[in-house]
């Protein structure tokens, strides 16, 4: 509940942005997830992923124009941690190819729209899209009964990053920040909720 309340509070506060201290308000929900992860596991890759996600949040809030690549790098590391965690319970099931095809098709579509505008960011963005897509795919193929929770979170993470990409490199998205942060917080929350339902930190 505290995570949901603080997430909603930041999204609402975007109507008053920019304002002093916005970066601190932005990372409160992530700090709550970090506390949950530490209380449950004490550390591990799940905590590492959350820490790098929070670092990415801070970087992009401070200067999303000039520090975009650095923020991208922080989230890339977070995704690599998630990939390793999800791959530990990987199990191929043929029907899951349907949602995987949707994810990969969407990622490819967004990339096609923004490719011409990437300039020197082409390589970093390609690497990031590959990591993001693999994170979502590995979440779908998790062999746990409630895989759909983390898979839904991963899908929302993909949607959030797609909105960032389209808004930055293609054309302005109405209410972009509100939509980006809503899907981001929902995605992170579902990923962590789904993972915390298991005993293993990996």
Written description of the protein model:
This protein has 202 residues and is mostly helical. It is built from 8 helices and no strands. The longest helix has 23 residues, at 147-169. The protein is globular, with a radius of gyration of 16 Å. The protein starts with a helix and ends in a 6-residue tail after the last helix. The relative contact order is 0.14. The model has no long low-confidence stretch (mean pLDDT 92).
First-to-last CA distance:
25 Å
| Low-confidence segments | none
Alpha-beta content class: mainly alpha
Shape: globular
How many strands, what sense, and barrel or not for the largest sheet? none
Calculate Rg over CA atoms: 16 Å
Strand content: under 5%
| Chain-averaged pLDDT | 92
Number of strands: 0
Number of helices: 8
Summarize the helix and strand pattern as letters: HHHHHHHH
Fraction of residues in helix:
over 70%
Features:
single chain; 202 residues; mainly alpha
Any chance you could write out the topology, listing elements then pairs?
Blueprint: H1 2-13, H2 22-41, H3 45-63, H4 68-87, H5 97-114, H6 122-140, H7 147-169, H8 176-196
What is the structure about, briefly put?
This protein is an all-alpha fold and 202 residues long. The protein is 75% helix and 0% strand.
């Amino acid at each position: 509940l505290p995570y949901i309340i603080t997430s909603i509070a930041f999204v609402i506060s975007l109507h008053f942005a920019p304002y002093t201290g916005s970066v601190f308000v932005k990372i409160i929900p992530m700090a709550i997830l970090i506390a949950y992860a530490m209380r449950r596991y004490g550390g591990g890759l799940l905590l590492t992923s959350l820490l790098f996600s929070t670092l990415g949040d801070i970087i992009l809030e401070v200067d999303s124009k000039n520090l975009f690549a650095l923020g991208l790098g922080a989230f890339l590391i977070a995704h690599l941690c998630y990939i390793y965690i999800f791959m530990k319970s990987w199990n191929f099931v043929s029907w899951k190819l349907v949602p995987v095809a949707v994810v990969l098709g969407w990622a490819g579509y967004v990339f096609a729209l923004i490719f011409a505008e990437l300039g020197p960011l082409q390589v970093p963005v390609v690497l990031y899209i590959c990591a993001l897509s693999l994170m979502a795919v590995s979440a779908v193929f998790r062999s746990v009964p409630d895989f759909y929770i983390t898979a839904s979170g991963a899908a929302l993470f993909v949607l959030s990053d797609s909105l960032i990409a389209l808004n930055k490199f293609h054309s302005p998205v109405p209410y972009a920040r509100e939509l980006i942060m809503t899907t981001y917080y929902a995605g992170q929350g579902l990923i962590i909720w789904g993972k915390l339902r298991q005993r293993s930190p990996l």
